[in-house]
Amino acid sequence: MPLLTYYIGVTLDGFIAGPADEVDFFGLSEDFVAFLAEEHADLQPSHVRAALGVAEAPLRSHDTVVMGRRTFEPALEAGIANPYAHLRTVVISGSLPAASGPVEIVAESPLDVVRRLKATDSPYDVYLAGGGCLAGAVSSEIDRLVVKKYPIVAGRGVPMLDRPFAPETFRLEDVRTFDNGCAVLDYVRP
């Protein structure tokens, strides 16, 4: 049964984007980019995979991405019809018209969608691309957190999980640090 992985960049104070969905303040470095290409190629948008030289790399861990409308729309605005063309792409939205094809747009309950995606016999996991509202709605189904913690304090913005107070415990599996000051923390649900 596939696991749900929430792979996300976050500030020290817990924000995945600024108040107007800004993400351009998350810095990169050569060793960090090499790590993303080597360890998390499946989880990169298709145009980023191409820039990293791994566009044709076979899938290693994930074959499906699920996201909300606010995560999907910037790609559309940039003229990218399917930001994760190498994966099955599922967008959960009550305001976009339903669609099937390269990008599936569904208006179902986020929990129902995620549970259906996890109930397959695929050997690959499901990548939760966000954002904070969707992650908060499905947090009980998150099996793995890959948190790219950047050395930035934002003060305000989009929280990593936008949901009511409900503590959940995860176990730290791995930590990697990089020249840009970023630490990648890999957690699993016990």
TrEMBL record:
Protein's recorded name: Dihydrofolate reductase
Cross-referenced PANTHER family: 2,5-DIAMINO-6-RIBOSYLAMINO-4(3H)-PYRIMIDINONE 5'-PHOSPHATE REDUCTASE, DIHYDROFOLATE REDUCTASE FAMILY PROTEIN (AFU_ORTHOLOGUE AFUA_8G06820)
Domain of life assignment: Bacteria
